[in-house]
Amino acid sequence: GAGVSQSPSNKVTEKGKDVELRCDPISGHTALYWYRQRLGQGLEFLIYFQGNSAPDKSGLPSDRFSAERTGESVSTLTIQRTQQEDSAVYLCASHATGPYGYTFGSGTRLTVV
Amino acid sequence: AQSVTQLDSHVSVSEGTPVLLRCNYSSSYSPSLFWYVQHPNKGLQLLLKYTSAATLVKGINGFEAEFKKSETSFHLTKPSAHMSDAAEYFCVVGLGGSSNTGKLIFGQGTTLQVKP
């Protein structure tokens, strides 16, 4: 596609439920990143994929968070047993060769009630 | 370790006056530095980036930033503010070194208010 696509754009879930957030990167972009943006704050790095492997998962806040990528394309971020502090905008970004040529998606706004 | 500090959480200027958004960084390597803008309910947009070429970097919408290694600063400026410049601005450092994964470290953001 022309850009990085994320779905859903908005998600409201009850505390304790599991959620899945999807990212479709730009076709051919080998690197994919997930970031989280809490209200009024900057972005926090969560995880980085190169192809289908994740050499850097250092930003995942707890074992309730996991992510996978398949076919060097779509990535899914899963949050299990959601808590209110998980409420944030989750952003996905991808780039092709060389770092820093990022394209960000519009994000998924997650609200845990 | 790399880090970035935006010195002002909120800046207010009048339309037509200069804009200065301040940023200091810390990096073990020759850094790559960026400014991103985020308008309300919209995605992040890259304004400009410094990657060890010219120290004065020109970006979109009349913004520019100067890399000053001696001061570890990368302040964002614009000669004349426009109402449409009102947004959240993020100073960002890219991790470098041999294990460069392209991970970005974001500052906390500066809210720019432009008054008529």
What descriptors fit this protein?
heterodimer, A: 113 residues, mainly beta, Immunoglobulin-like, 7-stranded mixed β-sheet, 50% strand, globular, B: 116 residues, 6-stranded mixed β-sheet, 4-stranded antiparallel β-sheet
Q: What's the name of the CATH homologous superfamily of chain A?
A: Immunoglobulins
Structural class by helix and strand composition of chain B: mainly beta
CATH topology-level fold name of chain A: Immunoglobulin-like
What is the strand tally of chain A? 11
Mean pLDDT of chain A: 92
Number of domains of chain B: 1
Q: How much is the average pLDDT of chain B?
A: 89
Tell me the series of helices and strands of chain B, N- to C-terminal.
EEEEEEEEEEEE
Overall shape of chain B: it is globular
- According to DSSP, the number of beta strands of chain B is 12
Number of helices of chain A: 0
- State the helical fraction of chain B: under 10%
Question: Shape of chain A from CA axes?
Answer: globular
Model regions low in confidence, pLDDT < 50 over at least 5 residues of chain A? none
Q: Residue share in helices of chain A? A: under 10%
Outline the biggest β-sheet of chain A. 7 strands, mixed
Question: Could you please describe the fold and organization of this structure?
Answer:
The complex is a heterodimer of chains A (113) and B (116). Chain A is mostly beta strands. Chain A has one domain: Immunoglobulin-like. Chain A has strands at 5-7, 10-13, 19-24, 31-37, 43-50, 53-56, 65-69, 75-79, 88-95, 103-104, 108-112. In chain A, strands 2, 4, 5, 6, 9, 10 and 11 form a 7-stranded mixed beta sheet that branches. Chain A has a 4-stranded antiparallel beta sheet with strand order 1-3-8-7, with no helix packed on it. In chain A, strand 9 and strand 10 (103-104) form a beta hairpin. Chain A is globular and about 40 Å long. The model of chain A has no long low-confidence stretch (mean pLDDT 92). Chain B is mainly beta. Chain B has a single domain, classed as Immunoglobulins (Immunoglobulin-like, Sandwich), CATH 2.60.40.10. Chain B has strands at 3-6, 10-14, 19-21, 23-26, 32-38, 44-50, 56-58, 64-68, 73-78, 87-94, 104-106, 110-115. In chain B, the strands form 3 sheets. In chain B, strands 2, 5, 6, 10, 11 and 12 form a 6-stranded mixed beta sheet that branches. In chain B, strand 7 and strand 8 form a beta hairpin. Chain B is globular. Chain A binds chain B through residues 31, 33, 35, 40-45, 48, 50, 55-56, 91, 95, 99-100, 102, 104-107, and chain B through 32, 34, 42-44, 46, 49, 51, 90, 94, 100-109.
